[in-house]
Amino acid sequence: xxxxxxxxxxxxxxxxxxxxxxxxxxxxxxxxxxxxxxxxxxxxxxxxxxxxxxxxxxxxxxxxxxxxxxxxxxxxxxxxxxxxxxxxxxxxxxxxxxxxxxxxxxxxxxxxxxxxxxxxxxxxxxxxxxxxxxxxxxxxxxxxxxxxxxxxxxxxxxxxxxxxxxxxxxxxxxxxxxxxxxxxxxxxxxxxxxxxxxxxxxxxxxxxxxxxxxxxxxxxxxxxxxxxxxxxxxxxxxxxxxxxxxxxxxxxxxxxxxxxxxxxxxxxxxxxxxxxxxxxxxxxxxxxxxx
Length: 291
Fold this sequence. Notes:
- The protein contains 14 helices and 2 strands; from the N terminus they run ααββαααααααααααα.
- It is mainly alpha-helical.
- The protein has a two-stranded antiparallel sheet.
- α10 packs across α14.
- The longest helix has about 35 residues.
- The radius of gyration is 23 Å and the shape is globular.
- The two termini are about 30 Å apart.
């Protein structure tokens, strides 16, 4: 009895330590984002002030506070524009990656052809290369396609590095689906596209949500390609925009606005995880138990 309580207590202590390690940096960023002036450099673990100046500074458009009229007429510059760029790029990457991955995973899991295993391993091996190793070649490819300093340059490069993971995961999930479902659809005269969209996709929702969210997070947080393939602020995403924040002078680091921007950038990811948490858990645990 005592041994069980000790094991349970050690387990909960271990979980609490992991949660603290993961959550504390974000919590401290929130606390710091409400500070201004020299108070930023004072170590306070509890909020001592509630000043929104840093958030107003981040959301300023063209050096002035952004208004509703700016939004309606899309007269948006600065960090708000970078935030919109990140949303557009990440959404397009997820849509394109899932579209290609679903069709590719159907072929790799259901269609028998020579070299299928080798092709799957080749797809997975693409993700083994670090970004810096392929940066020069990818830059030349993007320049040859006349995509430099465009949104499509980021969508193109992010999709390349997102596809191996999404294809591999969806192929694994699709292999676990009963063959009888597909055979029944074929008997009813369904084409391959109908089987994918009408039969398999409803069953793959947990996997699609899980892989889609992970692809969105990867595209949202990517920095190296966004820094290399964009030239002006009109096409930059939020990671690069945060690195470009400057203070009153070139040597001054605006820690307050940086912390506020980090909080703003992290919140959408937290909201998405909270909304789709049940689907994520189902997607991560599906196929783990077979009866």
